[in-house]
TrEMBL record:
Key words of the record: Amino-acid transport, Signal, Transport
Keyword Signal: yes
BP GO annotations: amino acid transport
UniProt keyword Signal, yes or no: yes
Record-annotated Leucine-binding protein domain positions: 32-390
SUPFAM superfamilies: Periplasmic binding protein-like I
Similarity comment text for this entry: Belongs to the leucine-binding protein family.
Residues spanning the signal sequence: 1-25
Protein name: ABC transporter substrate-binding protein
Length: 409
């Protein structure tokens, strides 16, 4: 039996009956099980945060309509950190101390995670990022810090050689956002090393091409890119900044294939330069031919498009899927690990959630099985996708772990 509470909820199961486990589940009827979420619903990544919120509200409704958690109502307390690290810490403390939630989904950005995860360890509360993929961030903040993402370095090591072979790349140029933690790490360190490892000439190795989050004019940087005449462009930036680069590339007539990280995964990227081959890794995309993905996408897409502060053509991204999986796993943990939802047991309940997440190996997410490695990062399947004809198309499937059968269903 698939042990995914999430799958049970979205398929409309009338009651989520427990799989036999060592801990006897309590009847929590009349109680409320609270989880928290920190999303960037304002600021440069507002689209991500607002879409996250829609996905979480849908999940909350689904779980409660399916009987809740052992009879208890599930409540998700959602706060906006504006992608500001200090605000993320404040929201984490508020969720832990004032709202007394059992676990927190978020924060999103690596910059926020780097300061929030140490606080989660101090407070003794699980914090799981839906976006962060800068190498080593969770590993440095065990045992309470987790990420339902894959380290960008692991992904790039597989994506770059595949991309190079597909587009016959012998020389490339890198452009990156120097102000964003993940984009900077990938653009200044990860991608240059991987290009070298694959025998690809890095044309701007001596004079890196970069810009800063919020820059509206990148014409000078793109002019330099074009002058280098690369076979490919490595674009390391989140979607909101990447579209500025892509639009300028289109304006200047650059038709060079682009490769990047998971930060490119947004429907906004599809519209920025539809004619250009853009390749990226992802653990989820709306067109993935999996029943659970179709059910999730069909359910959440109209809700997102009905929001006045989201684009009318938006589709759920991997970060929406990630946060949906995170809170689904929280709910499954609360159900199966003996959570009491009693105020006196708050610390013990938080520890139960942490221990369950660290050991659970049969949780089935939207794109397949999900578990957490010792470093706190997710082990899951991922896909190499290309933007084509206004949608993402899968080119290749791989696993984030080299272990045999690590991603087997």
């Amino acid at each position: 039996m698939l042990k995914s509470m999430m799958t049970a909820a979205i398929l409309g199961v009338a009651a989520m009956t427990a799989v036999p486990v060592a801990v006897q589940a309590e009847d929590l009827t009349g109680k409320t099980v609270k989880f928290g979420a920190i999303v960037p619903a304002s600021g440069p990544f507002a689209e991500w945060g607002r879409a996250n919120t829609v996905a979480l509200k849908m999940l909350e409704k689904q779980v409660n309509e399916a009987g809740g958690i052992n009879g208890a109502k599930m409540e998700i307390v959602i706060y906006d950190d504006g992608a500001k690290p200090a605000q993320a810490v404040s929201m984490l403390r508020k969720l832990a101390d004032d709202d007394q939630v059992l676990a927190v989904a978020g924060p999103a950005t690596s910059s926020a995670v780097e300061v929030a995860f140490p606080v989660a360890n101090q407070l003794g509360i699980v914090s799981v990022s839906q976006n962060s993929s800068k190498p080593g961030v969770a590993a440095a903040n065990r045992p309470w810090g987790f990420r339902n993402t894959v380290d960008e370095a692991k992904l790039a090591r597989l994506v770059v050689p595949f991309f190079a072979k597909t587009f016959d790349v012998k020389k490339a140029a890198i452009i990156y956002d120097a102000k964003d933690a993940t984009a900077s790490a990938a653009g200044a360190k990860i991608f240059p090393q991987i290009l070298a490892d694959n025998g690809i000439e890095n044309l701007d190795a001596d004079t890196p091409i970069s810009f800063n989050t919020g820059d509206l004019d990148v014409s000078a940087q793109v002019t330099k890119l074009r002058s280098l005449q690369p076979d490919a462009v490595v674009l390391s930036a989140d979607y909101s900044q990447a579209i500025t680069v892509l639009r300028e590339m289109k304006r200047q007539g650059m038709k060079t294939p682009v490769v990047g990280s998971t930060q490119l995964m947004s429907s906004a990227i599809l519209a920025a330069y539809p004619e250009l081959p853009i390749v990226a890794p992802t653990t989820f995309f709306a067109g993935l031919d999996v029943p659970a993905v179709k059910t999730f996408t069909d359910g959440v897409t109209p809700l997102m498009r009905a929001e006045k502060n989201l684009p009318g053509t938006i589709e759920p991204s991997l970060f929406d899927a990630n946060i949906y999986e995170i809170v689904s796993l929280f709910a499954q943990a609360a159900k199966e690990a003996g959570v009491t939802a009693a105020p006196a047991d708050l610390a013990a309940d938080r520890t139960r959630i942490r221990d369950y997440m660290a050991s659970e190996s049969d949780f089935v997410g939207l794109g397949g099985k999900v578990r957490f490695a010792a470093d706190g990062d997710a082990v899951k399947s991922f896909f190499i996708v290309q933007a084509k004809d206004g949608k993402w198309t899968s080119l290749e499937t791989a696993c984030s772990s080299p272990e045999a059968d690590a991603c087997a269903q």
